[in-house]
C-alpha cells in the first residue's frame, strides 16, 4: 500500500491522501507559536479484523540496497533498525520509546504488533540490475526472485524493503509519493509485505525530507539542520512511516481510516507532527544539539540521533510525538 501526503504549505490542513508516504513536506519551520495540533485532530483508526505483523519474536526486515550507498549512508539506517525494540543504554527519548506506541495495536486474538524489529538479511545490488528507471511491479518481481533464489527466506511476519540510491528513479517516487508498502501472494507459501523508500536528497528533498529541506513552493523559512544528512534522514523518516503502516495494516485489513486503497494509517494520520506544539508548517518542539545545531527527537544505537514522526495513539486518541 502506498501513501500520498499533502504536507505542503499549499495544503494547510495537511490531509493525507491515498497512496503515498509521509513524512512528506508539510511546510516550513516557523518560529511563531500557535495552538498544538496534537490534540486538535479528530482522526480515528478503525480495526478491520485482519492480521497484523504480530508473530512473537520480531518483525524481520530484509533489505535490498539498490544502487550505490556509501558506508556512511548505510550506517544510520542500520542503526535505526538496531534501535527498535532495544532501549538498553540509550538516552531518552529512545527510538524504542517511539515504537512502543505501536504495541497498543492488537489483532482480533489480542496479540500486539511485534515489539522488536531487526534486520534479518540484506542484499546489495550496486550494479542496478533493473536499470535506474524502475516501475513499481518490478520491485515486487525483484523481491519474489530474492525468495525464489533463496537469497531471502519466505517470511510472513517480515518486510522486504527495497531502498534506492539518490540517482535511481522509481515510478511515482517524488511525484506526491515518498515510498509505499504493498503485499503479494508468493504461491503456494502465502502472502508477504514488501516496500520501497528512496533517497530524496537530490530528487525531492522539500517533499520527502521536510523539515530538513525547503519545499519548492511555500512561505519563506529556513530548514532545520539534519543529524545524518538530508537524504538519509529523509529516508529514515519515511522508513519509519512505512514500517508503522506495514506492521499495523499489512494486508489492507488492519488499522486504517477511510478507503482501504486510500487509507490513513498509524503515522499518516499525523502529518507534519514531530514534537509537542506542532502545527501546519512547524514540526513541533525538538531537541537541538548544542554543537552541530542538528534537530532531532530520538536517540538511537551507536550515538545516532533521529527525527521520527508522531504515531496515532490508540490509548490517548491523539498523535503521540517524542521530545
From TrEMBL:
* Key words of the record: Apoplast, Secreted, Signal
Recorded hits in InterPro entries, A to Z, give: EXORDIUM-like (IPR006766)
One Pfam family per UniProt = Phi_1
What is the superkingdom listed in this entry's lineage? Eukaryota
Q: State the compartments where it is located.
A: Secreted, Extracellular space, Apoplast
User: Per the record, what is one GO cellular component?
Assistant: apoplast
Secretion signal: which residues?
Answer: 1-27
Q: Which family does it belong to?
A: Belongs to the EXORDIUM family.
Q: What is this protein called?
A: Protein EXORDIUM-like 2
Q: Which organism is it from?
A: Vitis vinifera
